[in-house]
Amino acid sequence: MDDVQFEGEEPINTSYTSRSILGTSEIPGMVKVLKKTGVVKNDKQAFRVLFGVILACIVIAICVFVLFVRTPKRQISPEEIERMKAQGASQQNINSHEE
Q: Are 16 and 47 in contact (CB under 8 A)?
């Protein structure tokens, strides 16, 4: 079953390349940098490292959002509302006297 080949079919290329522009394809720049610095030995390892970096960034972004953007759910009592209104009114009186 594996011996079946269709007419005009080219063998599958397993190396990773960026999309070709004007007919030439090349290895992505980040992969070249990782290989040049010796962090990885081949393209497959480089893509795994880059995928891990992307996942780590997503997890960090979610953690930052959950920890710092979320508003606390606290009930404000009617007494606190009245106190805030009184402070706001007294602040307005102070501002009107300054003008």
A: yes
* Report field, pTM of the whole predicted structure over 0.70: no
CA distance 12 to 93: 79
CA distances from 81 to 72, 73, 85, 91 (A): 17, 16, 6, 15
**Given its phi and psi angles, is residue 8 left (phi above 0), alpha (psi -120 to 50 degrees) or beta?**
left
Which residues fall within 8 angstroms of residue 31, CB to CB, at 6 or more apart?
16, 43, 46, 47, 50
Please state the separation of Cα 46 from the chain's center in Å: 19
Which pLDDT band holds residue 20 (cuts at 50, 70, 90)?
A: low
- Is residue 21 helix, strand or coil? strand
Instruction: Please provide the DSSP assignment of 33-78 as one string.
Output: HHHHHTS-SSHHHHHHHHHHHHHHHHHHHHHHIIIIISPP--PPPH
**How far is it, in rounded angstroms, from Cα 53 to Cα 66?**
20
Q: How far apart are CA 25 and CA 6, in angstroms?
A: 25
